[in-house]
Amino acid sequence: MTDILITGAGIVSAIGVGKEETLRSLQEERSGIRPLRYLKTEHHEFPVGEVQLSNDEMCALLGIDPSRQPTTRTALMGMVALKEALEQAKLMGSGELEKTPLISGTTVGGMDKSEQYYLDFLENDSRNEYIRTHDCGACTEMMANHFGRFRMLTTLSTACSSAANAVITGAELIRAGKAECVVVGGTECITKFHLNGFASLMILDKEPCRPFDASRAGLNLGEGAAWLVIETAEHARRRGVQPLMRLAGYGNACDAFHQTATSADGEGPYRAMKQALESAGIRPDEVDYINTHGTGTGNNDLTESAALRRLFGEQVPPFSSTKAFTGHTTSASGTIEAVICMLAMQHGFLPVNLRFKEAGECLIPVHKPTAKKLHYVLSNAFGFGGNDSALLFQSVTGDNLPAPAHSSPKLGEVARRAGGVCKVYLLSAAQISAQEPLCDDWIENPVELTEPLTRSREADYKQFIPPLEARRMGKILKRAIATATVAMNDAGQGIPEAIVTGTGLGCIENTEIFLDALCREGEDQMMPTRFMSSTHNTMSSIVAIKLHANGYNATYAHNTVSFQSALMDALLQLHRGAVGNAMVCAHDEMTPSYHALLCKGGYLAGKKAAECAVSMMLATEDNGRALCEVADMRILYRPTEEEKQQALAEMVADGAECIDGYPDLFGVNYTTPALDLYAAARTIGDKPVVVRYSDENHYSLILLKPCSDC
Questions:
Q1: For residue 117, what is the enclosing H or E element?
Q2: Which of 50, 187, 226, 400 has the fewest CB atoms within 10 Å of its CB?
């Protein structure tokens, strides 16, 4: 494991703005769960963990004029926490940001403004500027632009594990030598959309939550943001910054069981925690404390207890859930709780599991103030769709940097398997789009796009999904399952070891139906089905469930670089040898009404739009039928012309041809680059090809080489 240090941290939650106030709340056992104050909703029966700042107060702290700069609550909280982290790490004004990627995690994005102005969007033009703030990537860009120009941006959206997965992606960039320093974290505000969504699932408690208690009755929603600056030890030394703690290991796995529930034996949580320990090379008995996911729901606390018993046996380390302090901050929880773990290590105490009285079938958490020196701390974050992640941190003291943990036999096996360098082959690909589905007829007989919006041509889904199940399933999920199944079977690799998806809008049809009902009919009778399918990682999780794939699972939702981000992640996993194959997907659907909003918001600018479903299998070994080699790629944010030219020159050095995609074949949507790559791979000749995508903010290049060069 490359020595990765945390050198800056910032946090805002219901228990404080900044690390000092957060620490006092933890030590004084002061919970932030209270009645709603800022969110305008009918549901005042549910206590929440709100950040005790209005949007106007946060704008004042940040020097933002909201009348001139559209903002969202998610972005504002993110900026407040990001400022603290950047200042502590001495990145502000240092010139380092332009070399530094920023990886964010969020699920609702700008939903607070979308639900406030949804009817305005549809019926008049008075709030069009907020159409552009809806998607997750827009919030990340608002945060980044406030502080300068980062080298690269992307956004993970894996529900409640989003921020933890942002840490993992940042660490993978460092381990691959793609960056020396990365800013990672997550931010999420409470909205009517997900307050009503969680209420429809009947998992909200009307009293302050009691994780792991026999009387637990659900979770309390929270909000907040937290960021970590992670960098190599050498980079930290050169910059003269002090480490706060060390990222010793991490793990990500998919439970592959159910969209909103965890399997009884906690398979996904068990795998994620086990990976975290193995990647650090430490034994279970070396863990001093676990910050559990611990939501307070009947399912989570019981299955997490089962996973802890499986991994640690009868000697489960002290553990607690700090969600009784902050509420469940959903996408931001991974880094909010990482900062809490850091504070506990620095000040030598175990955070208390508030309001615990009796365990019942669950394990007994820390429920009394306890001083303890902490060396290794494990922090869990589990999301919808069984997306489970675990982060392992190691304490540091003053100028004495910790020695890396002893080597793990599993890591040695991975290193031998990877050999340090490997080629990655595109073995198979399947598409459902405006062209003939699940075949390559478009090569000889392409369908001409004549309408402003062309919906996908649907496949016969009976061979992939039972009819009764298909009736309850949105088209985008059917497309995801069909393309994934075909790509997997054509590759002949068996079950994918990783599934990584890019989506700009997620299941926008379900999101739109739920939002429309919320805005037109009120909050009394919201149905859970649409909410369950509205999270961006629904496609990755449903594919994992269908294919019984328990491996690495991630979803990126950053507008036009969603697919490229997913491909980047898969290449990092493959090159490191963490997996031997990976399924990379891109899925976006488009409703007529949302298409109209995108046109209003200036996203499409008169271009012909269409839908997209692509699944590809990549592997480090050629199956003899590989389409091409995926040789290199770049993603840049707001690059200068000189930076663009340099990146392109590096890509075309071997005589590669540069293409800008196939808009006449596939139309335009957020994940169009996936179809462009698919088309280039299917038609590649005897020369390398660079697939280029450029818009007002992002510039990406993907280098493909013919198999004759492999």
A1: helix 111-123
A2: 400
43 is catalytic: no
Which is catalytic among the residues 59, 136, 139, 160?
Answer: 160
CB atoms within 10 A of CB 706: 17
H-type helices in 601-689, by residue range?
A: 641-651, 663-666, 672-683
- Concerning whether 585 is annotated as a catalytic residue, the answer is no
Residue for token digits 């941006």? 153
Say which range, 125-129, 244-248, 259-263, has the weakest mean pLDDT. Answer: 259-263
Identify the three-state secondary structure at position 120.
helix
Burial 331-341 (b: 16+ CB within 10 A, else e): bbbbbbbbbbb
The phi-psi region of residue 199 (left if phi > 0; otherwise alpha if psi is between -120 and 50; otherwise beta) is alpha
471: Cα separation from own chain's centroid: 29
Average pLDDT over residues 421-442: 92
Catalytic residue, candidates 134, 194, 293, 698: 293
Confidence of residue 1 (pLDDT cuts 50, 70, 90): low
- Measured CA to CA, the distance from residue 138 to residue 132 in angstroms comes to 7
Query: pLDDT tens digits for 479-530?
Result: 999 999 999 999 999 999 999 999 999 999 999 999 999 999 989 878 888 8
- By the 10 Å C-beta count (0-12 exposed, 13-18 middle, 19+ buried), 531 is classed as buried
Is residue 427 within a helix (H) or strand (E), and if so which, with residue range?
Answer: strand 425-432
SS3 category, 6: strand
Cα angle, residue 314 at apex, residues 287 and 337 outer, rounded to 5°: 35
**DSSP per-residue codes, 323-386:** HHHH-B-GGGHHHHHHHHHHHHHHHTEEPP-TT----TTSPPPP-S-EE---SEEEEEEEEGGG
H/E stretch holding 198 reads helix 192-200
Instruction: Report how far apart, in Å, the C-alpha atoms of 35 and of each of 198, 210, 225, 437, 522 are.
Output: 17, 16, 20, 51, 20
For residue range 98-116, list pLDDT tens digits in order: 999 999 999 999 999 999 9
Return d(Cα 233, Cα 242) in angstroms, integer: 10
| Contact predicate 385/541, CB 8 Å | yes
Residues 482-496: tens digit of each pLDDT: 999 999 999 999 999
Element (H, E) at 539: helix 538-547
DSSP string, 237-282: HHHT---SEEEEEEEEEE--S-SS---TT-HHHHHHHHHHHHHHT-
Average pLDDT, the chain: 92
Write the pLDDT tens digit of every residue in 548-597: 999 999 999 999 999 999 999 999 999 999 999 999 999 999 999 999 99
The widest CA-to-CA distance across the chain, in whole angstroms, is 72
Q: Please pick, among 134, 146, 235, 328, the residue that the annotation labels catalytic.
A: 328
For 90, residues 6+ apart whose C-beta sits below 8 A from its C-beta are 8, 239, 240, 241
> Whole-angstrom Cα distance, residue 677 to residue 660?
10
Q: Are 635 and 412 in contact (CB under 8 A)?
A: no
> Count of alpha carbons within 13 Å of 38, Cβ hemisphere only?
19
Q: Is 293 a catalytic residue?
A: yes
6 half-sphere exposure, CB direction, 13 A CA radius: 31
Amino acid sitting at position 659: I
